[in-house]
Amino acid sequence: MSNLFQKLRHRESHNLPLALQDPTTATILLRELKKDMPALVFQWNDAGFNDVPAMPNCRNGIPGQTKVAFIANLVASGAVNWNDTIFSFPNGTAIGIWVGQIPVWARHQTGVPDICHSVTRITKIGATRPVNIEDFSYILLR
To answer: Domain of life, per the record (predicted)?
Structure first.
């Protein structure tokens, strides 16, 4: 199946970030994003939530430091959850506000796997024009 996203980006599928090579993700983005509505696409790293074998699904082995809690933080900040992978925001300012309050436990920690392989920011410029794709992974490295 051809990736619908590569059509709007004028790129071959292998030149897209891995998270955007998934046809389901591409379809959701193209169908649901409105003009000038940004979204973040997460390629999760489950190892980042399973670094303490005695406490599976809890980062650092601490209850509450989970993917579910991180997703709830996104939604509480105004994001709309699409398939636990895509989170659309009403505008860029809303993303900026969310970035400023990302939980400290979710950020990069030496010796602990990161919670995401990548975060990609997508902004649909117009109904038929290409979308803007930006590597946004650095937000979790601060």
So the answer is: Eukaryota
Encoded tokens for 110 = 């030496």
Mind listing the pLDDT tens digit for each residue in 67-124?
Answer: 999 999 999 999 999 999 999 999 999 999 999 999 999 999 999 999 999 999 998 7
- pTM of the model as a whole: 0.86
Residue whose C-alpha is closest to residue 138's, from 126, 121, 113: 121
CA–CA dist 108, 12 (Å, integer): 31
Please provide the DSSP assignment of 70-96 as one string: HHHHHHHTTPEEETTTEEE-SSHHHHH
Structural domain count, the chain: 1
Strand order in the sheet with 116-124: 80-82, 86-88, 38-44, 116-124, 131-135
As a dihedral over the C-alpha atoms of residue 42, residue 48, residue 53, residue 58, rounded to 10 degrees, the angle is: -70
Burial 22-39 (b: 16+ CB within 10 A, else e): beebbebbeeebeeebbb
